[in-house]
Design the sequence.
């Protein structure tokens, strides 16, 4: 397992909780708008040992409430379950960020009582999913299994889409609304450019455009909100 980053305090990553965020290396997607390009490949650099991480978390037990585990794609890490067990033994809540491509891992972690909250990315409509994920041959059936598991399970969860003007259009959100109709919560996050983006040249949407997409989604998902938009 490669622990490639640690945000020691966040009020944003775990809704309703003061948390720390752990970034794990490795990902099976290559979303061109990804902000974590240094975490994607097998050569991602580990910046913390597990021992260093646990020393930090033990010191913050009476301050932090939860730990967010993100990436990359954390479900690719073979030692993920072991790490979560150690963190839970300290009394922390666990939030997992995932692209949903490994439903068997997601299901096992949740059914073993190791996860308290899941945030799963919905990259785009089914038609444009592979292009948006940078993985044309991705198994969309695995994504659908994760969606189905979360929507019919008992784990608290959210779906979320990073909206990129060049990749997302009105018809995509019509299709997404039908696809995840009735889900618990769905967030639209506007793309923000940075020097760390895998493929430069993308732009975000205006607030008005995002509000329009939200209006399209509301009949299917009443709990659709914008996140990080002034």
Sequence:
């Amino acid at each position: 397992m490669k622990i490639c980053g640690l945000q020691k305090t966040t009020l944003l990553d775990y809704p309703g909780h003061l948390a720390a965020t752990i970034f794990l290396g490795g990902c099976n997607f290559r979303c061109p708008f990804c902000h974590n390009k240094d975490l994607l490949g097998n050569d991602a650099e580990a910046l913390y040992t597990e021992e260093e991480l646990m020393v930090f978390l033990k010191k913050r037990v009476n301050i932090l409430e939860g730990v967010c585990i993100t990436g990359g794609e954390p479900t690719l890490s073979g030692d993920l379950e072991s790490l979560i067990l150690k963190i839970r033994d300290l009394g922390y809540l666990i939030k997992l960020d995932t692209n949903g491509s490994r439903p068997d891992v997601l299901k096992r972690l949740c059914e073993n009582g190791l996860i308290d909250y899941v945030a799963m990315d919905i990259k785009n409509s089914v038609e444009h999913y592979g292009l948006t994920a940078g993985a044309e041959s991705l198994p969309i059936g695995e994504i659908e299994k994760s969606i189905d598991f979360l929507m019919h399970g008992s784990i608290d969860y959210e779906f979320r889409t990073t909206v990129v003007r060049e990749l997302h259009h009105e018809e995509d959100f019509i299709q997404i609304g039908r696809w995840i109709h009735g889900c618990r919560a769905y967030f639209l996050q506007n793309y923000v450019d940075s020097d760390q983006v895998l493929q430069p040249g993308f732009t975000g949407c205006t607030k008005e455009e995002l509000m329009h997409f939200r209006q399209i989604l509301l009949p299917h998902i009443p709990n659709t909100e914008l996140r990080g938009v002034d």
